[in-house]
Design a protein that fits this description.
The protein contains 17 helices and no strands. The radius of gyration is 20 Å and the shape is globular. By secondary structure, it is mostly helical. Helix 8 (131-159) packs antiparallel against helix 9. The longest helix has 56 residues, at 335-390. It has a single domain (9-186, 200-390), classed as MFS general substrate transporter like domains (Growth Hormone, Chain: A, Up-down Bundle). Helices cover 78% and strands 0% of the residues.
Length: 392
């Protein structure tokens, strides 16, 4: 591959915005999940299939499609998959039945590859000593997308209608799809095709053998992301329950807490560059566990819920940043496939967390959610401290 130019700061921030938009699509459902369930006449447990199948389809899509990023231009793939996201959102927007809505959401998950191609694209165009900062910036873009999706969806659904959320989401994705060819600089050539597509997929498995720590980093992020999804889906049901009595707008306002991560994550990335990814991750995990354990005693009122939610939003993205740092310093030609392993595990965790979060709430209410999250976070923290001792 030819020598690629370094990204300018303007390009880095533009990619951050693009990441925000393409990431947001999976999170509009969080504050409005109760409204969607009521509209289609399904139970809280059954509505959990929407985010669960979305996340599992994303894991399948990443396994089948993301490895192509080591052979085909990341730019070309990103544009193609963004168009697929746009079409899937249009199907969700127009769906007249629960089956069609689930189908659109599942297809959306399958095509949501762009947020994971963009960091690989950026990692090839930044100096190694700035990798943590740029990965943190793109992670902040992910947080911004989640923030806009959850806050905006909650408010729009409360004062307009939940379907209006998806009309707006489709328009935003259409705009990004049109802008991407200009936003992403060309010059990255397709790699020589020494093997077929099936053989390319099979090359992922020897990487697991040769780089075994990718399984640890992936498992940690699977638990991290799974508990994040489970928390916010259950929180939407908890806040809009008769016991709490709030509307979807309150769910959106509370999701605004994620704004702290936009400012803290780049600083945490710089700190991780200094102290090491594994040490920083273990510390972030311990802080997060402390916050999760506060959810039950402080879960009876919005004002007290702010404490554990702020703690989780401060350090949760840092766990992802440090996890990526453990493998994105390796050979450029391996990074997309290593990212594939990491993100597939992450979204398997997200899928399990999506269904488990709504099912635990359906069975035992807020107490069931808190028990589930405590288990997830305890295992995560144990793995993070094991990886700190195991890693080089």
């Amino acid at each position: 591959m030819n020598e690629l130019s370094r990204l300018t700061r303007a390009q880095e921030f533009s990619l951050c915005v693009a990441v925000a938009v393409v990431t947001a699509n999976a999170y509009y459902i969080h504050p409005i999940i109760g409204d969607v369930a009521d509209h289609f006449g399904v139970s809280h447990a059954r509505i959990g299939l929407v985010p669960a199948l979305n996340q599992l389809a994303l894991a399948i899509g990443i396994f089948l499609l993301l490895p192509l990023g080591d052979r085909i231009s990341n730019r070309r793939l990103t544009i193609m998959f963004a168009a697929g996201q746009t079409a899937s959102l249009a199907l969700m927007t127009l769906a007249g039945s629960f089956v069609l809505f689930v189908a659109g959401s599942t297809l959306l998950g399958f095509f949501t590859i762009a947020p994971y191609l963009l960091p690989a694209y950026a990692s090839k165009r930044v100096a190694p000593e700035r990798l943590g900062q740029v990965m943190a910036l793109l992670t902040a873009g992910v947080i911004l997308g989640i923030l806009i999706a959850r806050v905006g969806a909650g408010v729009i659904a409360e004062y307009v209608d939940w379907r209006a959320v998806y009309w707006i989401a489709t328009a935003l994705m259409l705009a990004v799809t049109i802008a991407l060819p200009r936003l992403m600089e060309g010059g990255e050539r397709d790699a020589a095709r020494r093997e077929g597509y099936g053989a390319l997929l099979l090359t992922v498995f020897p990487l697991i053998r040769d780089y075994r720590e990718i399984l640890i980093s992936g498992a940690i992020q699977a638990l991290n992301f799974g508990q994040f999804i489970a928390l916010w889906l259950a929180l939407a049901l908890h806040l809009t329950s008769p016991e709490m009595g709030y509307g979807t707008d309150m769910v959106g306002y509370l999701a605004g807490i994620a704004a702290v991560s936009i400012f803290s994550t780049p600083r945490l990335g710089r700190w991780a560059d200094e102290v090491g990814a594994r040490k920083a991750r273990a510390i972030f995990a311990a802080v997060q566990l402390f916050g999760v354990l506060l959810l039950w005693p402080l879960g009876g009122a919005v004002i007290t819920l702010l404490i554990p939610l702020v703690l989780a939003n401060l350090v949760g993205p840092g766990i992802d940043v440090t996890g990526r740092m453990t493998f994105l310093t390796l050979r450029p030609d391996l990074r997309t496939r290593l990212t594939t392993i990491y993100v597939v595990l992450m979204f398997i965790g997200g899928g399990l967390g999506s269904y488990a979060g709504t099912a635990a709430y359906d069975a035992l209410g807020w107490a069931g959610t808190c028990i589930l999250l405590a288990v997830f976070s305890s295992v995560l923290t144990a793995l993070a401290f094991y990886a700190k001792r195991y890693g080089k």
